[in-house]
Amino acid sequence: TQSTWGGLSGHNMEVSGALSAALGSSAKLPDGPFAYLAAHVPLVLLQRQDETSLLDAKELAVIERPGAKQAFGALATLFIEAARADADTSTLTSLLDDCRISGAKAEGLVAAYNQHKIGLRLGLRCATTSLPHLVDVAWRLDYHLKSNAIEKVNEALFFLDLKIENHTENKTLQLACTTAQLQDLVAKLKDAAKSLETAAAS
Questions:
Q1: At 165, is the pLDDT very low, low, confident or very high (cuts 50, 70, 90)?
Q2: SS3 readout for the chain
Q3: Model confidence over 12-32: pLDDT tens digits?
Q4: In a designed cystine with 166, which of 81, 122, 130, 132 is the match (CB 3.0 to 4.6 A)?
């Protein structure tokens, strides 16, 4: 499942059901450790602090390591998605309320986000412009009945056009694959998507 929140800025913020659940679990942390994570997770994202040193902090000693890591992952994903959507205070507050995060905990998250929002958005911009990204996919199916070496082939071939762009150029990567190869590719992409969902909740 996926939920969408909108604010006065006109930007919508979408989060997965897995992230919503992870944030709800994080809200059960004691106030002190939660506030410490809210203040320091953006510093890790901005590479001003090491994740290990954050998780080893004495302020988090009262909670078990798996719980701290799960909360770190959930809050890190929240900050990234909020910065990506250029979410405003109203949008973020509504999202947190829906995830059962309110009061001082919500105020701490919103304050940390607003404090580091510019830096987070600049970091996302650098990451997205330095690496090429996929913007469109086109495909065509051809059916080969025979070849020069074999009288009958009866094989379906899929031709994929992957349209890729970065800040300097646009290009198209062309691939040809059999039905089995295409099924393998789709299965691996689904595994990658599941891994992202798991990472958001861990």
A1: confident
A2: CEEEEECCCCCEEEEEHHHHHHHHHHCCCCHHHHHHHHHHHHHHHCCCCCHHHHHCCHHHCCCCHHHHHHHHHHHHHHHHHHHHCCCCHHHHHHHHHHCCCCHHHHHHHHHHHHHHHHHHHHHHHHHHHHCCEEEEEEEEEEEECCCCCCCCCCEEEEEEEEEEECCCCEEEEEEEEEHHHHHHHHHHHHHHHHHHHHHHHC
A3: 677 778 888 899 999 999 999
A4: 132
